[in-house]
Amino acid sequence: MLWITGAKGLLGSSLSTKCKAALHVKTGREVDISDIGSVRSFVKKNPGITHIVNCAAFSHVDAAEQYREEAYKTNAIGPENLAHVAGEIGAKLIHISTDYVFPGNLKRPLTEQDVVEPCNYYGKTKLVGEERVLAHSGCVIRTSSIFGKAGRNFVSQLLQMLQTQKEIRLTDDQWGRYTYAPDLSEAILQMLPHTGLYQYANAGIATKYEFGLALREEAILLGFPVITEAIHPVPGATFSAPCKRPAYSAFDTAKIEPFVAIRHWKEALRDFLCAQLPVYS
Fold it and tell me: Whole-model pTM?
């Protein structure tokens, strides 16, 4: 039996769709993962759990600077509690982490062995969560820039902007790899038997500007009501934000590639847009 924490979120809902028979729960309401007693009570009421996938996270990067206690509880204490309880019941834990554990000062694909030094508080809490899960022999999968049909994310917001704004400004000095939630969900299922640290994202390194150009082109080809006439490249400093982002956080995914298939983000982007088409037909 598979328990998915954060099952109503962007990744959790995608994973739940692929696991119709899985046991899943919305954390915070039914289970507070930062309270080990709550986690123990849940697994006691639901015997037979063999795997836990932790998709729960305090993922609002800027808000984490202000709501530090809440971010730490969810991103650091929560994963540790799940790891403890997984050990108690003999279950395997897969924990989802982030590219924001990297400082962003290296301009080459980053491996699992590269130095981690988060440049913001969100990244610091996620790094603590990683370390505590790995200390209990769990599996950590770092990912980046997740997009999909459910929930708010950069790609869904950008698609809306393309249909409501004549001009858009997007950063062209921050590089990363985008991740389609259904693709990551499939990868998670393939990684259930594994332990250790891995990184997963769709192939291809891009800035938000490059991604935006591709999204506009594909959306027009598929018949979306795009009104944007121009997308302008701008430096990240153009947009004020409470915390710093890593300038370069694109993964090297060689370690996970023997176990999962990885396609280019442009192919995944086409599937994402096709999934939205019934809304506009």
Answer: 0.94
- Three-state SS string across the chain, please? CEEEECCCCHHHHHHHHHCCCCEEECECCCECCCCHHHHHHHHHHCCCCCEEEECCCCCCHHHHHHCHHHHHHHHHHHHHHHHHHHHHHCCEEEEEEEHHHCCCCCCCCECCCCCCCCCCHHHHHHHHHHHHHHHCCCEEEEECCEECCCCCCHHHHHHHHHCCCCEEEEECCCEECCEEHHHHHHHHHHCCCCCEEEECCCECCECHHHHHHHHHHHHHHCCCCCCCCEEEEECHHHCCCCCCCCCECCECCCCCCCCCCCCEHHHHHHHHHHHHHHHHC
Give catalytic residues, as residue numbers: 122
- pLDDT by residue for the chain (281 residues), tens only, comes to 899 999 889 999 999 888 875 666 555 567 899 999 999 999 999 999 999 999 999 999 999 999 999 999 999 999 999 999 999 999 999 999 999 999 999 999 999 999 999 999 999 999 999 999 999 999 999 999 999 987 678 999 999 999 999 999 999 999 999 999 999 999 999 999 999 999 999 999 999 999 999 999 999 999 999 999 999 999 998 888 888 999 999 999 999 999 999 999 999 999 999 988 765 54
Domain boundaries, the chain: 2-152+178-204+248-262
What CATH topology corresponds to 2-152+178-204+248-262?
Rossmann fold (3.40.50)
